[in-house]
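Practice record 12: protein with adenosine-5'-triphosphate.
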Amino acid sequence: MIQTIVLMIALLFGAAAYVFRLKMQINQLQAQLITARASIPTAPPPPINKNIQLEPIALEGAGQALKAPPTTIQATLDNLKQEPPYSIPLGWYKAHNKVFLQTGRLVGDINHILISGQSDAGKDNAALNILLSLALTHTPQQVNFAIIDGKGLDWMGWQEKAHAWHVATDPEQIGDAMARLTAERQRRRAILAEAKATKWDHYQGGDLPMLVVFISELLLLENAVGSKNLTSWLNAELTAARAFGIRYIIATQNASNFSTQWRSQISLCMAGFQPLDSSDAPNTTMTAKELAERKLVAPSKLPSPSNGAGGVFVLVQSGDGINVRTSLISDQHRDYCLNQLPNLPKNDLHIKPKMSIDNDHEVLANLLNIGLEAVNAGATPTPSATLSATGRYTASQSQESAALQKTATRSADPFLPSNHDRPSATIALPFEDEIIPFTEQRRIIEAARSVSSRRQLCTELYNTTGGVKFTWVKNVCDALGLLQTTATVGK
Ligand SMILES: Nc1ncnc2c1ncn2[C@@H]1O[C@H](COP(=O)(O)OP(=O)(O)OP(=O)(O)O)[C@@H](O)[C@H]1O
């Protein structure tokens, strides 16, 4: 009996100890789970309520520039709602004890913009405000962006966005991007001429979105193509771009050392802090004294970004202006906003050329191989995977690339005879059937024999000079080096 009781007590103790251990383990697991949950990155919070109360307090020493602008894009968008299309935010200021957002319009108001200011003045953030709000208020059919960076990783997230016409993030891609812009201006010129529209604003075709080009540091372009080439490129592009629906936003630490000719095409100067007053006039068109006469604080008199006064600018347009402070967009909020924007459809990767000179070499090498294969073997070469997966712009900036391109084009030219005229059946079709139907690729290649321009080709085959059909023609011609348009950069 006693034995049984002792056994039962022992069993009870054993069970209690087991339950206790189990509970401890559960507690431990729960603690681990909480830690694990905390380390999972949470989704970015939605933009804060638009009805935030902004304090009408100006930043000391910065004129009317608001001390604490909103830190999300929501309040900006609310203000832009009342503005006509293509309006952009330029910064916040205080007047009559109220808070205002200064806006501008890229049609009929501002043409090109120069954003200047020493390191950390807030140039990239100012441009981010402009591009994000444009993208969030316009479709990719209305606005496209070309972003030429090379400074860092700030603009990486834009590459796959439907609004992005071209994004160059490495210094090595800059010359190529410049050549593309020249080619795009020429393409637009031809389209407008054909449609008998004297300028982009009058064009009704619906296939030419406004192209806003952002250059994050002008010096990097100078490093890429040299000072002389850069000056002539800027002179040509900035003078002509406006009529073709292209707007430039050029950022640089200090515009003093750049040619004054293209600077005369700038209609809005957005000038941030400068350490020397000799930089005031080149970056704003007015001296500190002239600015002071208009109650404006000159760049050299602004509080320094190193004292926590980033994002403060003096805006100068047509001899007048205002001091403002931009909204500071955090990386998290930028990513949240980017997530709201439509992505590029997968197939469009073929339509929007996005490759570096290095990739160009790869494509050109492939072309060369295809051409040689076809000539040597006389057999039908298989389309190259690399080539079929990408579009290609023929404009390339380096001499080496140009020479290679010439060779590649000659070797790959399906209409060049080897020993005898090769029939068009031996041509390597550059795109998969589902991207551009094989039958259409063959028709385009065949028709290229007898016309002198892509536009003419498109008219003959499809009785149009725009839309998807022209994109087919352009991409097939680009890929095979047919009816090439010439680049001006670097020559
Ligand atoms: N509107 C703003 N309000 C407060 N701080 C700002 C604002 N804009 C920028 N800053 C501060 O300045 C820093 C640098 O901003 P940004 O990268 O836009 O400057 P930048 O002029 O492009 O610099 P750099 O020429 O060195 O690339 C930000 O990380 C932020 O700390």
